[in-house]
Design brief:
Structural class: mainly alpha
Number of helices: 6
Largest sheet: 3 strands, antiparallel
Strand content: 5-15%
Radius of gyration: 29 Å
Strand order of the largest sheet: 2-1-3
Order of helices and strands: EEEHHHHHH
Number of domains: 2
Shape: elongated
C-alpha cells in the first residue's frame, strides 16, 4: 500500500492506493497518520479571534435572553416602540383623541375595554421591559468589556463563563 499527500487547487488531500499519483509525495504509514491527524485539528485561534468569537456569543445569548420577554422581529419591535410612545403620549394628554393613537385603538376590547385601559397596560409592560432590558444590556456590555480587557485566552474564557443573565 502506498500512502501519499497531494495538493490540488490549493487544497491538500491525503490518500492511499497501489499507485502514486502524479505530483503526489509518498509518505510512510506513520507520516500519513500524523499528517491526517494534524489536518483534523482545528486551526489555532488567536487571542483576538477568541475575543471576537466570545463577544459574538455574548450578543447572541443576550438576544436569546431578550426573546424570553418579547416577540422577535423588526416589525414587532417597531410596533412595541410605537405602542409605548402612543401610551406615553395618551397618558400625558389632557383631552386625548383616540384617532391620534391608532395602535392603542386597535387593542380596545382585546387588551382592555377602553383606550385608557390599553394605554395603562401598554405603559406598564413597557416599564417592565425597561427594567428587564436594561439588566440584560448591563450584563451584555459588562461581559464584552471583561472579554476585551482579558490579557490571555484563559482570562477571556473565565470572563465568558462568569456571565450570569438576570432572572
Amino acid at each position: 500500500m502506498i500512502y501519499f499527500k497531494q495538493t490540488l487547487n490549493d487544497a491538500v488531500s491525503f490518500g492511499e492506493g497501489y499507485v502514486l499519483p502524479a505530483g503526489a509525495a509518498e509518505l510512510t504509514l506513520e507520516q500519513y497518520q500524523a499528517e491526517c491527524d494534524a489536518a483534523l485539528q482545528p486551526a489555532t485561534e488567536t487571542l483576538a479571534q477568541l475575543k471576537d468569537r466570545l463577544r459574538s456569543l455574548v450578543d447572541a445569548e443576550a438576544e436569546a435572553e431578550r426573546l424570553k420577554y418579547i416577540t422577535p422581529g423588526v416589525g414587532q419591535s417597531m410596533t412595541y416602540q410605537q405602542k409605548a410612545a402612543e401610551a406615553s403620549r395618551y397618558l400625558a394628554a389632557t383631552d386625548p383623541d383616540a384617532a391620534d393613537y391608532p395602535l392603542l385603538s386597535a387593542e380596545v376590547g382585546i387588551t382592555a375595554e377602553d383606550i385608557a385601559g390599553v394605554a395603562a397596560i401598554v405603559d406598564a409592560a413597557f416599564r417592565q421591559w425597561q427594567a428587564i432590558g436594561s439588566a440584560i444590556e448591563a450584563v451584555r456590555l459588562g461581559a464584552k468589556a471583561q472579554i476585551t480587557a482579558a490579557a490571555d485566552a484563559d482570562a477571556a474564557n473565565v470572563a465568558y463563563a462568569a456571565i450570569s443573565w438576570p432572572a
